Amino acid sequence: MNWFIFIVLSLLFIVTPYERGLYFNTDVYTVYFFIFSLFIMLVVRLLIRSETNSILPIAFVIIFPFCFFLSLFNAQNPQGAWDSLFQWTANAAFVFLIFWAAKERKIKQWMPHVFQLTGIWIAWHMIFLHFGWLFYPNAFIADRFSGVFQYPNTFGMIMIAFYLFSLVMLTNENLKGYEIALYSFPLVAFMVCFIESYSRGMYLLFPVIWIVGLLLLTPKNQLKYICYSAVTMVSALFVTRAFERDSTPFHDYPGLTYLLLFTVLTIALGFALERLNVIERCIKNIERWNEKRWGQFVAPMAIVAICLLGLLDLTNEGLVYKQLPENLQERINSINPENNTARERYYFMQDALAMSKESPLIGFGGEAWASIYKNYQQLPYQSNKIHNGFFEWIVDIGWIGFLLFVAVFLYFYYVMTKNYLKKKETALQIAVFVATLTIFSHSFIDFNMSYGTIWLMVFWLFTMVIHHEHIVVPKFWEKVSGANSHKLGRNSLYAFSILVIVCFVISYRFSMADQYYNQAQDSKYLAEREELLSKAVALNQNESKYWFFLADTYIRIKQQNINVNENRRIIKEINHKIVSLEPSNSYLLYRAGVMLERIGMKEEALEKYATALSMDQFDTEIYQHTINLTVSMALDASAAGDQSRMVHYARLAAHTYEMLQENIEAVQSVDVWHYHNSRDFHIPFVTKEKALISYFMLEKEDEIGSLVTAVTNEGESDLFVLAGMLLQELGHWKKAELIYQNNELHPNETEDLKKKYQEKYEIF
């Protein structure tokens, strides 16, 4: 059964990156089913044979789903919390499965090869996409390689993880011929893909991690490492320069010849270093260096010196800088601690820490940031991720969960370090170390941890170097549990098995609900759509988009005068359900208000808008919708002769506008605000127009004058005409004349605008 499990997991490992890196939850349910099914089969087999002790040493990974299970009780995004629980239950089950399968020695030997083959195909798949031989959606983002992950930074990080893994593996002693080819063949492709990803974060991290890998090797292997690196880096630069050239009648695929040539050269270098002992022949005293304590630091010190010189060259745009491709030069020039994206990530982290203070112990549940970050943000940026995987943990599972997660991974590194110091499988230990270090270090500045594929890679890497006999129960745990240690382990395993079954059933229900939802989107018939969506929400009541679509369907049915009162009641119930799902999600509350407004419940809609604005001070759309609705209600009250209601709604509109102004001024007081306004927080023209109407109904001529005086946008000249008309209606003719004089419109245009506003508003 070991081989069966290994083959299935290997296929999943190789294939799943092409499901958009398992980033989207709808892409991973099938993967969960495979992993959960395999785990249940394994547990049944172990129970029948009384062999559960064989997987107990790794039982501490149950901590992962346990932390997310606890956070379910404070979930701000129920759907995200469940999906995170599924993911980490599947991750833990994956660890159990691969750990048990890898007890077979030959399987353990095959694991690096499977890992390498996965990297080779990801890189060459991207190369094929570049030449137009394959198609994959969003494989290029702003002309940057993003590959199967559809995100350049994560793609660049993964390429370096594979690159460093391959480099270190090539320093292994007594490599077989096929292993030399396996690890040397993709090096140039890895480096080309990395450069073409234009990931500034990885450009900074790569030299540091590369030097860490160098420091861990013996002098002889350091020279191999340097040789492979020098040849492949220079080769990759030649290839990327060639990529920038236009195709010609003789070269339809610029750079392809260089890529193939340098790939063959790298393989030849591998055989020369391994079979002809070139390094030993060139440096006769290499073995003596190996014996010297200081010998291990000679090459790193020299490389650091060269790197410093290179840094000076790049900073001053010297000889080396001028040899780089133009796109790469531009990307290097943009590397700066004060860079907008770097500074924005700092704001993300500050806001995440502020958020965590309200639930420091167990967090807010999986994917909480996307639902509630607008309640805490300092500037109007748009980001559904913190761009820091560790801060995501703090927000999702609290400080307790964060510390437990970190403790588990530190334990993995502790076991690896012990093996490294004992000189056991040194090359593989170092290769795994630098590859995982690449992933974790870059995850400090990006959201790599949101990709399910990344976690499969991490656990696959750790399993390569952690054997059954390496895991020792800590002494403090032995003292706490005493003779019950194994019993506690078995009970934990049984509890986890129950959790796997629960997750299997619920994730299956969610998958079926998603299928019904997709069918409903394709349906043109309201009755059929209602039936499909009713099935979807019956299977999964946590997904707000199902409820919104169902409510929209009932509203359309109501508009056809079919069961009007009953449908109105159902819509109100759906609205209540949506609000109760994510009560701290401002955008969801706003959409719930729009739903109520569509069925004529305007007062209730205003309450939802007000609550949404109390949470989110930077949503232009909510301000605009609130002001439009209140002015409309004020005009209706005026037409009905209800003066008190007119004043009430006009005051609401004016108050909302003034709140918008205050928040705009507060944001603009920050020097760098315009660099972090991806939500496009501003005061729209139509909102200013409605504010003028509200001030008119409140007879506030000074506010009318102040509003138009502050207008600087040439496209808003119409407001001068409207303000003049309103002041004339209030009897302030002199003020109106002054405003007309400030208006640069042609007299004919002014008269046309007056006619337009007279037709639009009955107050004239």
UniProtKB/TrEMBL annotation:
GO molecular function: ligase activity
Coiled coil regions, renumbered to chain: none
Segments crossing the lipid bilayer: 31-48, 55-73, 85-102, 114-136, 148-170, 177-195, 201-218, 225-243, 255-273, 294-312, 393-414, 426-445, 451-472, 493-511
Localization per record: Membrane
Pfam families in alphabetical order: Wzy_C
Presence of keyword Ligase: yes
Entries under InterPro entries matching the protein: O-antigen_ligase-rel_domated, TPR-like_helical_dom_sf, WaaL-like
Gene3D superfamilies: Tetratricopeptide repeat domain
Main location group: membrane
O-antigen ligase-related domain segment(s): 187-406
Keyword Transmembrane belongs to the record: yes
Membrane-topology descriptor: Multi-pass membrane protein
Keywords, ordered alphabetically: Ligase, Membrane, Transmembrane, Transmembrane helix
Protein name as it appears in the record: O-antigen ligase family protein
Taxonomy of the source species: Bacteria, Bacillati, Bacillota, Bacilli, Bacillales
